[in-house]
């Protein structure tokens, strides 16, 4: 079977079943699990599916729809954990920071030490995770709760950002394009992230390798507003070089 034909059949299986494991795909196509992982990585970059821990899941082709949190939580898990751990290392005692409603921010919240910090977030999951850490003061934006992402958005959430100023913001996104900047699949999330960026001195973008050279539905900001990019070890070396040429500070884990 040709590689292109295998890829086509993998996408068809994922679309039909909504999720499938690497081990099953390996058995179906009589190839190694490593071959299947490479297939899934390529198909994810082509926006035909999303990788999950141990397999792949169906994605809606409508880019403006948010992926439910429970699905985002298991997509590219290892990369997100690596990025989150590195992001947590950028925090020092006494910081006032913003964490967005991404699954990477939730992994970061889990990694944060229990030290004196102030964390502003629009994520219900992040707020709940940090509630167990006694020295961390948590401020929620409030607003309209989006059930899929467990995040607060809308006019009240956006207006609440105007009352605060922090020294660091940790933001994730659906795409980073060399010319068009960073973007998100949902307009309301993009508006919140734009407000977060405006409220912070230093901006960290947490992004795994699958999001590079991607332009999602709603624009957030240009690359000139970003101070640091934290990414995983699989990021394409050519893209890394081009970002460095733009004088962006990359932290590659």
UniProtKB/TrEMBL annotation:
- HTH deoR-type domain residues: 3-58
Recorded hits in InterPro entries, A to Z, give: Carb_Metab_HTH_regulators, DeoR-like_C, DeoR_HTH, NagB/RpiA_transferase-like, Tscrpt_reg_HTH_DeoR_CS, WH-like_DNA-bd_sf, WH_DNA-bd_sf
Keyword Transmembrane helix belongs to the record: no
Which domain of life does this protein belong to? Bacteria
Translocase among the record's keywords?
no
Q: Which Pfam families match?
A: DeoRC, HTH_DeoR
Query: Which SUPFAM superfamilies does the UniProt record give?
Result: NagB/RpiA/CoA transferase-like, Winged helix' DNA-binding domain
**A GO MF label:** DNA-binding transcription factor activity
Q: Which UniProt keywords apply?
A: DNA-binding, Transcription, Transcription regulation
Protein name stated in the entry: DeoR family transcriptional regulator
What species is this protein from?
Virgibacillus indicus
């Amino acid at each position: 079977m040709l590689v292109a034909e295998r890829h086509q059949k993998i996408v068809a299986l994922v679309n039909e079943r909504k999720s499938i494991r690497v081990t099953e795909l390996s058995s179906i196509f009589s190839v190694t699990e490593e071959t299947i992982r490479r297939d899934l990585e390529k198909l994810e970059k082509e926006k035909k599916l999303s990788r999950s821990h141990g397999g792949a899941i169906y994605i809606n082709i409508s880019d403006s729809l948010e992926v439910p949190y429970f699905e985002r939580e298991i997509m590219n898990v290892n990369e997100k954990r690596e990025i989150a751990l590195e992001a947590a290392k950028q925090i020092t005692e006494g910081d006032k920071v913003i964490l967005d409603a991404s699954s990477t921010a939730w992994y970061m919240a889990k990694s944060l030490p229990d030290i004196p910090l102030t964390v502003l977030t629009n994520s219900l999951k992040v707020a709940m995770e940090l509630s167990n850490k006694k020295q961390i003061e948590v401020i929620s934006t409030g607003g309209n709760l989006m059930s899929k992402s467990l995040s607060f958005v809308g006019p009240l959430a956006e207006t609440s950002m105007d009352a605060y100023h922090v020294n660091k913001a940790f933001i994730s996104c659906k795409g980073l394009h060399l010319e068009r900047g960073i973007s998100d699949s949902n307009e309301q999330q993009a508006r919140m992230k734009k407000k977060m960026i405006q409220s912070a001195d230093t901006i960290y973008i947490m992004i795994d390798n699958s999001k590079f050279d991607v332009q999602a539905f709603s624009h957030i900001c240009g690359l000139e507003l970003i101070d640091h990019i934290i990414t995983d070890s699989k990021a394409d070396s050519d893209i890394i070089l081009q970002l460095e040429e733009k004088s962006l500070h990359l932290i590659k884990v």
